[in-house]
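Researcher: I'd like a candidate sequence for this fold, 507 residues long. If you have to choose between options at a position, lean toward the conservative one.
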């Protein structure tokens, strides 16, 4: 850690004096569990045992509560076949059931497979088979879904584990020396979700995030997005390290989320863009305590960035990244105010390159493929496949351009670029323009073959704007060749649990 890194930790309130006995307890937690989900609450129980760690729909739990309860649950999971390296599927909504199960699996020596609560039965069965999960921990509401998808596997509900956390007399198994493997699923917007494995973060990874997003130790954070996905899960882990109080609710209701911010004077709110749009529309409760609204998970439309800044003030931070590379760039409120479509700059210690087809760096202002390197980049998919790599960096799968000011603009997927009559068109840019019309609530652009121009764009629109108005808007803002040839008006767009549009369902 260099001087810049130390300054980031001081600003975040992480470099403060600790009593020797508590420091020893924290060190013992790391020695016993390694850098795993188990460590956060064990170390927190040593440093600030009576601080509230979690508030959910059932009430509150302190750091000591979660540490002791998951000690008992680790023993119970051991009786159900969870041991060193056992792949355990976790299918649960935001709340203590999810958090305690993840920590207990880690304490028992198992590996955690985070399952998407929006998965269909066939897709779920495919993932469980591929990842060879032998045990599944799940909310009771998913019992019917798992009756076939989880056939032949040992299952236990989070509700049963919650009761055992109160009554069991078991403790955690002996130190295993195994570092828990975390498998996070990709969104599966273009096909079956794949598993991206990680084995934990380092202090440099924490510094990287905090260098661009000014979260502070000990302050309440509302995580509204699903914690089974990389964005929510990353903030849950970061909140453990910061000793923050995390507020979770099982289902996203914009009015309820804003009331939770007001009730707990939360200083941070973690969302995905589709949630952010609803929160802007539901604004009303006092959210003046917020210092950070952090958004990621899918592209942030420029119009939404502007409306958010107008509604909540200069607190919006937009992170560009992916399940595979983790974080690539973060846009601050000042940067978004100047250019609502920017993805910002790379965090401290992150390498970002824009390269041409030959792998050479593109000059400023020239579009190319994006490659990223960070400490949290994955090691490859669990099925043995991988992303393209260049000099140790991983392809995000997107095209982008870095301007003379050093700010990144993401143009869209590198396989989404459409050539129409010999001109390159980026669907993401067309979507941004259409979303700027007051009569458009949601939009997605797909492409189809065209006998005259090679390809044509199709706009899937939720709203009451006319086709002629929208065509004129694109023609004025972009170019004639970027105007969609076909408009389809829908009641809503198909989205997954993290808010990404399922374009394969629109094709």
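Model: Candidate sequence:
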């Amino acid at each position: 850690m260099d001087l810049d890194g130390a300054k980031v930790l001081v600003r975040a309130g992480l470099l403060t004096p600790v009593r020797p006995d508590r420091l020893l307890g924290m060190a013992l937690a790391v020695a016993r569990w390694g850098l795993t989900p188990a460590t956060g609450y064990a170390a927190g129980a040593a440093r600030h045992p009576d601080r509230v760690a979690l508030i959910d729909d059932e009430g509150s739990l302190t750091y000591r509560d979660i540490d002791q309860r998951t000690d008992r649950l680790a023993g119970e999971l051991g009786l159900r076949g969870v041991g060193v390296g056992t792949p355990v599927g976790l299918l649960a909504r935001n709340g203590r059931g999810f958090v305690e199960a993840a920590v207990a699996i880690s304490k028992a020596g198992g590996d955690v497979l985070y399952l998407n609560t929006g998965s269909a039965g066939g897709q779920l069965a495919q993932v469980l088979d591929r990842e060879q999960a032998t045990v599944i921990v799940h909310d009771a509401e998913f019992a019917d879904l798992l009756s076939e998808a989880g056939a032949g596997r040992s299952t236990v509900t989070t509700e049963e584990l919650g009761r055992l956390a109160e009554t069991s007399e078991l403790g955690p198994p002996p130190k295993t020396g195994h570092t828990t493997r975390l498998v996070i699923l990709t969104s599966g917007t273009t096909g079956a979700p794949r598993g991206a494995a990680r084995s934990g973060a380092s202090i440099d990874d924490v510094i990287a995030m905090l260098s661009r997003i000014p979260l502070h130790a000990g302050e309440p954070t509302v995580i509204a997005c699903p914690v089974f996905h990389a964005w929510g899960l990353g903030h849950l882990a970061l909140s453990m390290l910061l000793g923050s109080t995390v507020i979770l609710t099982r289902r996203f209701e914009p009015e309820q989320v804003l009331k939770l911010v007001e009730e707990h004077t939360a200083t941070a709110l973690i969302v995905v863009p589709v949630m952010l749009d609803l929160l802007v529309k539901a604004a009303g409760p006092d959210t003046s305590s917020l210092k950070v609204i952090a958004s990621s998970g899918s592209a942030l439309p420029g119009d939404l960035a502007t409306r958010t800044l107008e509604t909540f003030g200069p607190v919006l931070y937009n992170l560009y990244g992916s399940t595979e590379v983790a974080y690539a760039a973060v846009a601050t409120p000042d940067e978004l105010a100047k250019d609502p479509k920017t993805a910002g700059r790379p965090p401290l210690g992150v390498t970002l390159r824009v390269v041409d087809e030959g792998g050479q760096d593109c000059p400023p202002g020239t579009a190319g493929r994006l490659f990223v390197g960070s400490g949290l980049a994955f090691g490859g998919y669990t099925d043995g496949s991988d992303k393209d790599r260049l000099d140790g960096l991983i392809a995000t799968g997107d095209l982008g351009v870095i301007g003379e000011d050093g700010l990144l603009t993401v143009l869209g997927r590198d396989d989404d670029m459409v050539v129409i009559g010999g001109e390159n068109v980026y669907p993401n840019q067309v979507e941004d323009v259409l979303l700027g019309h007051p009569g458009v609530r949601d939009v997605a652009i797909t492409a189809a073959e065209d006998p005259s121009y090679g390809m044509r764009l199709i706009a899937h629109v939720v709203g009451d704007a006319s086709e002629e108005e929208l065509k004129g808007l694109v023609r004025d803002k972009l170019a004639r060749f970027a105007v969609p040839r076909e408009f389809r008006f829908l009641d809503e767009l198909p989205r997954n649990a993290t808010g990404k549009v399922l374009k394969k369902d629109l094709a």
